[in-house]
Amino acid sequence: MFTRSLIPDREPARSPGRESARSRTMRAARQALRVLAAELGTPAGPGTPLFGNVHSRWLRRLPYIVACAFTVILLPSTGTVLSNYGMSGGLAVWLVGGLATAQTVPLLLAVTRPLQAWWVIFAADILCAMALTGADRIAGRAWPWPPPVVIGYLVLMLALSLRERRRTLMAVWLTTGVVGLLFAPVAPDRSHSTGVLLFVLTGVLLLMGAILRERGAVQRKLLEQETISEAERARRTLLEERARIARELHDVVAHHMSVITVQADSAPYRISGIPKEAQEEFGAIAATARESLAEMRRLLGVLRSEEAERHHGPEKTPQPGIGQLPKLVEGTVRAGVPVELALPEELPALEPAVDLSAYRIVQEALANVVRHAPGARTRVSVTATADRSRLTVLVVNSAPPAPSAPLETGGTGHGLIGMRERVRLVDGSLDTGPLPDGGFRVAARLPLSALPLSAKDSATA
Fold first, then answer.
1. How is the chain split into domains, by residue range?
2. CATH architecture group of domain 321-401+412-451
């Protein structure tokens, strides 16, 4: 006879410290699984092919050639090996064909998207290992990863290591090892385990591929730095040369122009009895010198401006254009050259570069007439084509009215060279040459809209 206790049994009290440690462990495990899933589900970048940035065409095709070669070799060999394991007859034939295809064909996808290819191939490898667990002739054979599976997986690891981040590679490696360990307790009798072998070989290939990828990245960065350094040195040399030219212009040309201005302005006060016409001439000389000095200062500012070279920004002072041609012709007439100017009633809208080029061409042509054919009758005309696509600038002078020595006898030809360079920059054409009557002709054809630099480069290329 026994008595039943009416007092309920008490559960042993759990230690708060033990419960806290267990919760911390579970929390850390969940966090690790989230990180692992994030790394395995996030590719490193867009699906650009491996070696897609190299210049050699053969190197760009090499990943496709290797992937095709391994796919062609491993597809039939995987099916043959699985059949030798005892998976043959009936539905097993279809299973073998599906597994072999899923384990090899995604190698072609690995050229552009290796992480997505890994998901497909690794899932097929796991299904294959589970199917081989009950195979008839597995004794004495490799399991869970048959030899063709190991080879295809290592090829995939090489492609993966050349593309993905370190953390993704680590996640893939650990996942491979964990799955191999999970298969160990259910290994068939008398089979040779390849879980550790694949784990070790995968780690070696991932490490080698990551080293090669980082080495290539370092070399590319060094090459970029060298290119930047060379460009910086060339830019510094250009700025130094511009500063030197600006100093020479300031010290020589600007100084002389300032002297001319002062002398022309002070001539009526220093010399008595000067006729009114001569005073007006001195005033015109001073005004022209001041205008030239202002343009010289603007040019000096451009040459010394590092910001203008860096951003190609607009110059702060307005540039002369066709609208200033009457003033230019007036100054030339005061210099003793009869000039006739013909402009269209409505000036077409011009790009700043075209407008400036037209003005400078007329300016240089008139300066050549003053220097080499003083007193020659000159005609300047600016016309636009009927379709408003091109602008024609024509400067024609006759022979001097009387034989006289030119103001300058030793021309350098820099003026004509400068005109040709201006015309070429706006994608125009220039025709210059002497006339039968002893005169000279300058004809420039300019587009009403300047051709963008990129389009011009591609057209000339």
1. 42-193, 321-401+412-451
2. 2-Layer Sandwich (3.30)
Instruction: Determine the longest span between alpha carbons in the chain, in angstroms.
Output: 158
Under 8 Å between Cβ of 261 and 289: yes
Q: For 202-247, what is each residue's pLDDT tens digit?
A: 999 999 999 988 888 888 888 888 888 888 888 888 878 877 777 7
- What is the Cα–Cα distance from 358 to 211, expressed in whole angstroms? 60
Which DSSP helix (H) or strand (E) runs through 340?
Answer: strand 339-342
* 144-186 pLDDT tens trace: 999 999 999 999 999 999 989 889 999 999 999 999 999 988 8
Indicate the Cα dihedral angle 138, 144, 149, 153, nearest 10°. -170
Q: Six-digit token pair at 302?
A: 């451009």
For 335, 336, 438, the CA distances from 403, given in Å and listed in that order, are: 18, 15, 11
For 85-138, the pLDDT digits (tens) are 888 767 788 999 999 999 999 999 999 999 999 999 999 999 999 988 878 888
For residue 391, give the amino acid letter. Answer: L
Q: By C-alpha distance, which of 320, 329, 330 is closest to 357?
A: 320
Beta strand 390-397 pairing with 378-384: antiparallel
- How much is the pTM? 0.51
Other CB atoms within 10 Å distance of the CB of residue 92: 16
CA nearest to 71, candidates 159, 2, 194, 175? 159
- End-to-end Cα spacing for the chain: 112
